[in-house]
């Protein structure tokens, strides 16, 4: 796949980047080089390769998934116009 000058101008327009006419050929070459590299990557055999999140195998630290009220319910609703039992009271908007 290759990019022509019109496509370079369109990409620049979509990205809201001002590109001078003299820069178009250079950008065209840069974009074509990037696309050629991506095409090379598609030739790599990845059968049986597991997805990785890091180059070193490690387990993410996890916290306990515990439901709590944050121990500050009064602070949370302090500026609300109306509250009841630590809940915000709002006017009914759906009939």
Structural commentary:
By secondary structure, the protein is mostly helical. It has a domain at 5-41. It has three helices and two strands. A two-stranded antiparallel ribbon has the order 1-2. The longest helix has 18 residues, at 24-41.
Return the average pLDDT rounded to an integer: 90
Count of discrete alpha- or pi-helical segments spanning 4 or more residues:
3
Q: Termini distance? A: 56 Å
Poorly predicted regions are none
List keywords for this structure.
single chain; two-stranded antiparallel ribbon; flat; 2 strands; 95 residues; mainly alpha
Topology:
Layout: H1 5-14, H2 24-41, H3 73-76, E1 83-84, E2 87-88
Antiparallel strand pairs: 1-2
Catalytic activity: L-aspartyl-tRNA(Asn) + L-glutamine + ATP + H2O = L-asparaginyl-tRNA(Asn) + L-glutamate + ADP + phosphate + 2 H(+); L-glutamyl-tRNA(Gln) + L-glutamine + ATP + H2O = L-glutaminyl-tRNA(Gln) + L-glutamate + ADP + phosphate + H(+)
GO molecular function: asparaginyl-tRNA synthase (glutamine-hydrolyzing) activity; ATP binding; glutaminyl-tRNA synthase (glutamine-hydrolyzing) activity; transferase activity
EC number: 6.3.5.-
What is the structure about, briefly put?
With 95 residues, the protein is mainly alpha-helical. The chain has a domain at 5-41.
